[in-house]
Amino acid sequence: MKVTNVNLDERIHVLKSTSTFMSVIKEIAESGMQEEAFYVLDVGDIVRKHQIWKEKLPRVHPFYAVKCNDSLPVLEVLAAIGVGFDCASKNEINKVLDLGVDTDRIIFANPAKPSSHIRHAESVGVRLMTVDNESELYKIKRIFPSAKIVLRIRCDSELAQCQLGMKFGCDPVYDAPTLLRLAKVLDLDVIGISFHVGSGCQDPPVYNRAIAHSRTLFDLATDIGFKPYLLDLGGGYPGDRGTSIDVFADVINDSLDQYFPSDDVHVIAEPGRFYVASAFTLATCIHSKRVVRANVNDPDKVTHHMYYINDGVYGSFNCLLYDHQHVTPIPLRPGSGKLVPSSIWGPTCDGLDQVVDNVMLHEMELGDWIIFENMGAYTLPVASPFNGFPIPKVHVVADESMWLMLKGALPLTEAHFVVNDIPENIHCGLDISGENVNWENPSIELTTLE
Ligand code: PLP
After folding, report:
1. Cα of 87 to ligand 1 centre, how many Å?
2. Residue 194, SS3?
3. Is 285 one of the catalytic residues?
4. Which one of 13, 319, 363, 405 has the fewest beta carbons within 10 angstroms of its own beta carbon?
């Protein structure tokens, strides 16, 4: 299905060979027409991540965790390149179904689901769902007895940015066997085991322990009379620029060879930040500044600069509070002179709204821009317009080769693409200048990415 109704903000800017997403940021920021913070999303980065995933983890089919970043272009690109989806709610399910994704490419991976959401899953045909407790088994028995149940066990990483085990996952030794037996008594269909070691995991061997527990439970489930065939490795994989999943992949591939050597078991995972963290770069602008001086007796001695920017912890930088992220400010204009201790603050009237507490920076002025990389994970979906400060808009870019590959596969028409070096007329809509483009140019088959 091609979408013909084009929202100007949703169009993808096709970069000529001389442009990069960084040059786009510079052009927008320095256009003199941009006041608000904005994102640039490089869709090519997402596609490259998928290529890495397929190369490093060939047995593991990714089901992207929608909660991590549910921006439409992200979901459209992932849907087009064949990724499945982990949805946590009725609305996330609908968002993915609206893209034309088949229901068997969706797992409802929230072990504590409101009844109405389970009813909805049944009505639209999403059958795969995770469970980690007795009450949820009874609830599913009542509402959706033919659901395909994946038992979520707990196996925590010792080093994770966000621990999840205190909320979800049953103990694999003490609780899981009881739950499997109860599911059998209730005549439910348990088809596999899942886990989530914790988001932002820095402890790859934990996947070996979790896969070993899963093997034991596959065997027990088989003895009880189930026919388990799905292993779900959850999320946890790093996604920032410069990070790698190589060690994770080595541990996982070895563990799968050891415990699940047969291809009869279908292996999936629910990566979130891996796919999107590095694809989004945030540009913020300094709108106010305070110079802190030593004391009244030495008014020339500056001890600290405080910069106030147009996005903060109630907006994109909620990730500092909720996702325990650390962000690095990169001034767009290279500074000179001496480095001064500095802090960076968000735009709201709340004292909590601090983005960076102490960093050495060259002096900057009002109107200067500060860039933050790796802002794609757990930022936009959580942001609020508190105090009336808007959530930053996303400008989507793709280089020419990526665009040729995507344009046939995305549910879009050529009107969705702006073929230009940089987005023009940022405030008043965007100019389409695609006259020189051969729209008949056959698109590269996306199956090559699979
Ligand atoms: N799956 C589930 C059930 C989650 O709760 C999360 C994140 O909280 C994810 C997947 C994605 O995790 P990550 O972004 O660490 O890959």
Report:
1. 10
2. strand
3. no
4. 363
